[in-house]
Specification:
It is built from 14 helices and 19 strands. The chain has 411 residues and is an alpha/beta fold. The chain has three domains: 75 residues, 2-Layer Sandwich (Alpha-Beta Plaits); 77 residues, conserved putative lor/sdh protein from methanococcus maripaludis s2 fold (Beta Barrel); 238 residues, putative lor/sdh protein like domains (Rossmann fold, 3-Layer(aba) Sandwich). Strand 2 and strand 3 form a beta hairpin. Helix 12 runs parallel beside helix 13. The longest helix has 17 residues. The two termini are 41 Å apart.
């Protein structure tokens, strides 16, 4: 939600200015509340109205403000209201709940950028060296006495960056989810975005599900990591466990990856793989002694790149590196999000939604799944920048690797 406050003054009733202005706001989808209304006492005394505007669409607010200028609208700025948290882990009542768009907060007459844009958190404000700072803060970060923005006044939400030449095409691709869209073109666009991100010195994040291993495309992902195209991996216990099963036994979920047939007692293979790694204390040690010699996790350890394995209630084992506390897992992901320019979400619904909750809207996001519902759920939960590719992960990863064709060029 973005809000603005403005005033109109003049012969608002005699010249129908007020009706025209309010009609314009309604047509543009901007809601308004009347904060003050003074009717002129005579033909020579002007009327005055002050309006509080609000909308979920920041560009619509910008268009409305521009359209109201000919009516004599004056923009009224006011500082954000702050309230102290009265206990740990609880935001003040009426706290401002963020979007993932870049946001500014007005404090002592100055617009302060909110650090770490993330949806559905509060905005903590504090003074440091005589200057105000503001940052997003989830509930479990709240400490008694912290000051948070309450209400909507003094908060400005900025639209997404439109400087890049390909932004219009990116937004066009974001608008629709369908299995009938030109996949090769979309993957080529994804590859271009990755190249541009690497040239800018930013990171590429991949969020992956176990279907990457089941489909036999783990070697492709491992090569992308080794070549330097993937800088961070988010996954769950399942991707890592089946990737390690494949490295140790050549199976995934007990299916021989070379022959495509189930093997005797194959359903126990992932448990045996997890057990061996637990005996050694972790994946890195299993890689060091040669027990894990190939695969995605081997590439993560040997490249090396950071990874977060976030657990769930259904996990077997789990592997020692799996973070079983969801709040700790969220914070581990948050620590690696800064600097990410492109996020690839491949064949995982829950981890994609969880990651999307942490990403700024400026991060170009590609969600790949054979089920359109995964992409729809992601965008429905606020990750509006996500481009959806309804296809299997094997085709996507192989086509992406072909488009990237080797390690990044060093500029």
């Amino acid at each position: 939600m973005v809000t603005e406050r403005l005033s109109l003054e003049g012969h608002l009733l005699d010249e129908h200015t007020l009706v025209q202005a309010l009609t314009l706001l309604e047509r543009m989808g901007v809601q308004y509340d009347v904060r003050r209304f003074r009717v002129g006492g005579g033909s020579h005394e002007p009327s005055l109205i002050e309006l509080q505007l609000r909308t979920e669409d920041p560009p619509a607010m910008d268009r409305a403000l521009e359209a109201l200028r000919p009516y004599g609208a004056i923009y009224l700025e006011e500082d954000a209201r702050l309230a102290e948290a009265d206990m740990d882990g609880v935001l003040p009542e009426d706290f401002y709940s963020t979007t993932n768009f870049s946001t500014l907060v007005r404090l002592d007459g100055q617009w302060i950028p909110v650090e770490g844009p993330e949806m559905d958190v509060g905005i903590r404000c504090w003074q440091e060296d005589g200057r105000w700072r503001a940052a997003g803060a989830p509930m479990h970060w709240v400490r008694r006495g912290d000051r948070f923005v309450v209400g909507f006044a003094g908060v400005k939400v900025l639209p997404m960056d439109t400087e890049r030449q390909d932004e219009e095409e990116f937004r066009f691709m974001s608008n629709e989810v369908s299995s009938e869209r030109p996949k090769s073109r979309m993957i080529a666009h994804c590859a271009d975005a990755i190249r541009h991100t690497k040239q800018e010195g930013k990171k590429v994040l991949l969020v992956g599900g176990p279907a990457i291993v089941h489909s036999g495309s783990a070697p492709v992902l491992a090569q992308l990591i080794r070549d330097g195209w993937i800088d961070v991996l988010f996954a769950g216990n399942a991707l890592a466990a089946h990737d390690i099963e494949a490295a140790m036994m050549g199976t995934s979920l007990g299916v021989d990856l070379a022959g495509g047939r189930s093997v005797p007692h194959g359903h126990t293979h992932h448990l045996r793989a997890i057990n061996r790694v637990r005996r050694l204390g972790g994946i890195a040690e299993a890689v060091r002694i040669g027990l894990i010699g190939t695969g995605v996790m081997h590439a993560c350890v040997t490249k090396p790149i950071p990874f977060v394995l976030a657990g769930s209630i259904r996990d077997d084992g789990p592997l020692p590196e799996v973070i079983t506390d969801n709040v700790q897992a969220q914070d581990a992901m948050r620590r690696l999000v800064p600097g990410v320019g492109v996020a690839l979400m491949v064949a995982t619904t829950l981890h994609s939604v969880a990651t999307g909750n942490c990403l700024p809207a400026s991060v170009k996001t590609y969600c790949v799944d054979s089920d359109a519902d995964t992409v729809i759920k992601l965008t429905d939960r606020g990750t509006h920048q996500a481009v959806g590719l309804v296809t299997d992960c094997e085709f996507f990863l192989k086509e992406l690797a072909a488009q990237l064709a080797g390690p990044p060029q060093v500029l």
